[in-house]
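#random but structural
TW: two for the price of one
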Amino acid sequence: MYALADRFNASIIGVSALGFVAVSGTILGNPAHPVLYPDLLWGVYNIDDVVIPRVHNIAKKYIRQNLRYLGDLETGQNMLSLNVNPVLYPLRPTVPAMVEMGQMHIQPMKLLPQDLQEKLDGATDDKKLRNTIREALSELP
C-alpha cells in the first residue's frame, strides 16, 4: 500500500484488524512501553531489516523503479483506525492519528417476533425453554 501511495501521491490511512500492534504505534510516533504493553508479534520478525527490504524490491519490480524506500514511506502514514474492543484491550494513551473504532459493526438490538417472544415468556422451566429454543432454531434454513 505504501508503494501505491507513493506512485499516486495519496495519503496513507491504515486499518488494523488486530488492534494496537507495537509496530503501528512506533510508526505514528506512539511507541508502546514493552513492560506495560508487551507485544508478542514484535520479536517474530525484525521488520526493518528483513521484511521491508524484501517488499521494497518486489514493489520496485512491479509498481515503479524509482520508488522511494518503503521504510521512509512507512513513517508518512497519516492515520490508523484500530479495531479495539475496550473490554478486551487495556486502555492506553494514543496520539490523535490513532482512532479506536471498535464495535462499529454492532447494531441496536431488535425485538423478537411476537410469537417467539410469547413462547419464551410461557416457558416455565429449563426443559421447556430449551425445547422452545430448539424448535425455533429448527425452522431456520
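TW: number two ↓
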Amino acid sequence: MDLKVLIVFGFFIVFVESNLTFKNWLLKYNLNYRTNSPEFNRERKQSFDVSVAFVTVNKLKYNFEYELGLNGFADVPFQQFQNSFNGLILPSDPSQRGSLITYKNFTQILPNLVGITPAAPASVDYRNYSLPVLNQKLCNSCWAFSTLSAIESKLMMKNSSFKTPLSAQSIVDCDTVNLGCSGGWPTKAFNWILQNNGNGVPSADAYPYYGYQMKCRNVPKIPVNLKAVIQDYTNGDEVKMKDIVANSGPIVVAFHVTSYFQLYSDGIFYDPTCNTKCSVVNHAIVIVGYGTDPVTKNDYWIIKNSWGTSWGKNGYGFIARNKGNQCNIACWAIYTT
C-alpha cells in the first residue's frame, strides 16, 4: 500500500477511534477535567488525539518488536512530558562523571574500574527483590526514586522479610546536593544518604510522597547501612554492565527518553532516533535484570521505571541490549555495596 494512502487511512481511523476511546480512557485512569479551564480541556484532548495518531500510524508504518499504547501519559504533550517527568542532571564537573567509589569519609576517583567476576549467567531477574512501582508525578525526581529502588532491592536481597518502601519525598525535600523537583544525579543522592543523612531514610508511610518539594521534616529513619557507593562509567560497554548487574543486583542507570518511550507498552524497546552520546541523558531508571527472547533471540535489559503502573508492563520495561547502547542505557552503572 502506498505510504500516503496508509497515512490517510491511519488518520481516518484516528478520527473515529479518538472520540470513541477518549471517554473510556478518562474512565480507565480516573481522570476528570471538569475542574480545569475549557482551554486546558481542549489542549489535553488535542494531545490525546496526537497520541492516538502517533500510535496508529506507527503500527501501520513500522514492524516494531515492541508495542505503543495509550497509557496514562497519552494526553501529555511530549515537550511537557520531558520537562515534568524526567529530571536527570549530569554533574557539571566532568571529573564527577567518571568512575568513582565513595565511602563514609572520602571519595576516590578511579580511571577505570575493573570488571567484576565471576562471569555473568545468561539471564537474571531481580523483580522479586523489588517493591511496587511508584509514580514520581509532576516532579523531576527520577533520581530519587531510582536511588531508593536500588537501595530497597539491596535490603531485600540481604533480608527477605524487608518490605518497607522508603520515602522519596524525604530525599526530594532534604537532599541538599540535588535540586528536588528540578532534578538531580543518583550518585549524589546515594552519597548524601551515606555521608550526610545518618545512613538512613524514613519510611514512605512516615514521610509520604506528594509530588512537589516541601520543607524538610525530621522523622525517624530506617537504617540502610550503605558501605560504599560505586559509579562506574561503563561508556556503552554492555558486557561489563551485564557483569555488574549479575554480581551486584539492581543498578541505577542514565537513559535518553524519546516520544516513543513515553507511550511504550510492552516488548523489547528499540528506538534508532535515540542519541548515542553519553552526555545526552535525561532520565534515571533501574536495571533489574536481563535476558534473551527465546523466539527472536534478541537480548534485552529489564528495567523498573517511576512513572506508575500505567506505563509499560505494569511499570516495567524491556530495552534492547547489545544493540548499540540503546538510548545510552550502558553509560553509567550506579550502585551500592
